Amino acid sequence: MKRFIAVIGLLFMLTIPSCKKSDSANGGGGSNSSSKSITSFVFKAADNPGLTSDISGTIGADTILVSVPNGVSLISLKPTIVHTGASISPGSGIAQDFSVIVGYTVAAADNTTKIYKVNVRSSVGGTVYIGSNDGKLYALDADNGSLKWSFATGGAINTASPTYYNGNVFICSADRYLYALDAATGVLKWKFLTAGDISDVTPTLYNGNLYFGISPAGGSLYSLNAQTGSVNWQRSYSSNPANLTIYNGMAYAAQFGGLSSFDITNGSGGLFFYNWICGPGNPLVVNGVVYLGTEASVTRANNAITGASIWIYSGGLTDNCQYSGPTVKNGIIYNGGALTGKFYAMDSATGIMRWSYQGSGLFSSPMVANNTVYSGNSDSYFYAFDANSGTVKWRFGDPGIRSVGTNNGTVAGNMVYFGSYNKNVYCLNAVTGTVNWQFTTGGTVYGGPCIVTNNQVVYHPGLSGEQQ
What we know:
By secondary structure, the chain is mainly beta. A hairpin with a 5-residue loop joins strand 29 (332-336) and strand 30. 48% of the residues are buried.
């Protein structure tokens, strides 16, 4: 009898650890456990072609942020997920389109749930250079917006955008100087004194030289050696352009007196195309054709070599496109209007209107990437249009932005960068329009950013999306 009781006792003791182990697997609360957390989120190289190493996400309270190398497709990535709780949907190992934010629902044993939003973005792995009305040029980490360095010029930086070349970044200021800074440290390399305020001037880089103009009383056109700042040549004109587009040895420039070209070897005059009022946006020159909007037409096309008119839009809309420069993609010219607040898409060969969008103010120079057209408007929104139909994919606004109409953006990877009147520099997911980060400067940010990746890929905004 005593032996029987001892056996029963031993069996009872052996069952106790087994029960505790089962409870622990359910999160420590048995069948009523409320545990429901993602503890690991990894894109494994073995499961995802294009990755050379495993990439783990940063897990927050209800968000997961993952940065993948620039150029890796986000359309079909397969995550490996570890979680507590009873289940997760979508499941681990199932490929998803991470070009948009993906929600994962974790269910606990007690049937309560928690949703994690997974944001996957391309790691540009470089630097954003952008000027501010506070007179400073800022160098920001492209992935997180942290400040690397800043340099104070002697005057405001307005719509001027930075230009990069061979380890140097260039910026123009209201103090009449063009500055050359070490791109890594912000240390001054050289500066060049011009004849007037150049805070709205973006120098154009070509074959190791910088070209730009100013328009005080009697304008000047300059060519400088980008490495040394020495003057190659200087020309004076009565109405000189600020921003140039270079094609086939000629610089094409929009002026308030019309569209002109100049020989870049010595600055001598070339063609004078027409005398309608043109604005500060760069002309677009592609395949021997120069495109530009004027006060009299939405956009017009001329032979860049002879000056002959190819077409002038005459479809019934009259607009003033003098505040933006056009861009082209897949045979479609995109341009933002000023007089009517419209945004336009036109056939580049014929000038026939493909589609238009009615905004409420000035549109900035457009840029095209991933079948999407991006442009800011002075209605305080930054827009993303479907390039083929004109449908608004998303728009981003901020109550503090009085106008983004003159703020040109830049796309790098799956991120779009731009400044605003509320002193902020924004980095948005280019697909969804959600904010990745923002950085606050000491003044209004009018000009577009220049992005340089760690492997020296350069994205220039200029004043025309064509320069992307």
